[in-house]
Amino acid sequence: MDVRVFPDYAALSQQAAHHIAHLIRQKPNAVLCLASGDTPIGTFQQLNAMAQAGELDLNHCLFVGLDEWVGFGPADVGSCAYYLYKDLFTPARIRPEQIAYFDAKADDLQAECHRIDRIIADAGGLDFLLVGIGVNGHIALNEPGTSFTLRCHVSQLAESTISVGQKYFTQATPLTQGITLGLRHLTDAREVMLMASGPRKATIMQAALHGPVTEQVPASIIQTHPNARVWLDEAAAKPAA
Ligand code: PGA
């Protein structure tokens, strides 16, 4: 595992963006799955700047959505897709045909899961998966107790995910289920990066990195990946006092 601790969020974001840019330059048609959420925003800003300056060509990449709240779509403020469009797809001018995202408003969510599984398989698998971590150890919407063997599935959200998730919405919003890539997608991805920033993530990062590999801490699966990066800022890397 490539574990790196950067002095602050800005340095973490800059290095992550450089790493992703390098990967895309090596493989311009890379299949990427990049998490939404607060953690990658700085990385996306750097990537957008590179794309806008003509230093990075994102035109041949395929972007697969990581997860979504069931019942929410890209037009809904607070949805995962809403932020990914706002923070990356729109400023980086990613074309619709380059994006494969769950329709979490679909009547048949199982069919949506199969559709995204199929897209990933047909594209030859994920070249790169960027994930954050929830304070309960979740990866995407794979909550504690989720089997490591699942691909796309519908999940029951944990209480902490429902309460922490309110930060993405402008008003109190009932959340119950998610539709998400599974941890099998993480194991199968050619490269994985877990990013964490800030003191709120310090305790769970210790468990994910140094505790047992267990489905009770979904992020601990990263210890088993042969090509994994865990990049943190100092605040997230500090063991709790
Ligand atoms: P955050 O979300 O980047 O907004 O902290 C991480 C997560 O819950 O996976």
From TrEMBL:
<dbReference type="GO" id="GO:0006046">
    <property type="term" value="P:N-acetylglucosamine catabolic process"/>
</dbReference>
<dbReference type="GO" id="GO:0006043">
    <property type="term" value="P:glucosamine catabolic process"/>
</dbReference>
<dbReference type="InterPro" id="IPR037171">
    <property type="entry name" value="NagB/RpiA_transferase-like"/>
</dbReference>
<protein>
    <submittedName>
        <fullName>Glucosamine/galactosamine-6-phosphateisomerase</fullName>
    </submittedName>
</protein>
<keyword id="KW-0413">Isomerase</keyword>
<dbReference type="GO" id="GO:0005737">
    <property type="term" value="C:cytoplasm"/>
</dbReference>
<dbReference type="InterPro" id="IPR006148">
    <property type="entry name" value="Glc/Gal-6P_isomerase"/>
</dbReference>
<feature type="domain" description="Glucosamine/galactosamine-6-phosphate isomerase">
    <location>
        <begin position="10"/>
        <end position="230"/>
    </location>
</feature>
<dbReference type="GO" id="GO:0016853">
    <property type="term" value="F:isomerase activity"/>
</dbReference>
<keyword id="KW-0378">Hydrolase</keyword>
<dbReference type="GO" id="GO:0019262">
    <property type="term" value="P:N-acetylneuraminate catabolic process"/>
</dbReference>
<dbReference type="GO" id="GO:0042802">
    <property type="term" value="F:identical protein binding"/>
</dbReference>
<dbReference type="GO" id="GO:0004342">
    <property type="term" value="F:glucosamine-6-phosphate deaminase activity"/>
</dbReference>
<dbReference type="Pfam" id="PF01182">
    <property type="entry name" value="Glucosamine_iso"/>
</dbReference>
<dbReference type="InterPro" id="IPR018321">
    <property type="entry name" value="Glucosamine6P_isomerase_CS"/>
</dbReference>
<dbReference type="GO" id="GO:0005975">
    <property type="term" value="P:carbohydrate metabolic process"/>
</dbReference>
<dbReference type="InterPro" id="IPR004547">
    <property type="entry name" value="Glucosamine6P_isomerase"/>
</dbReference>
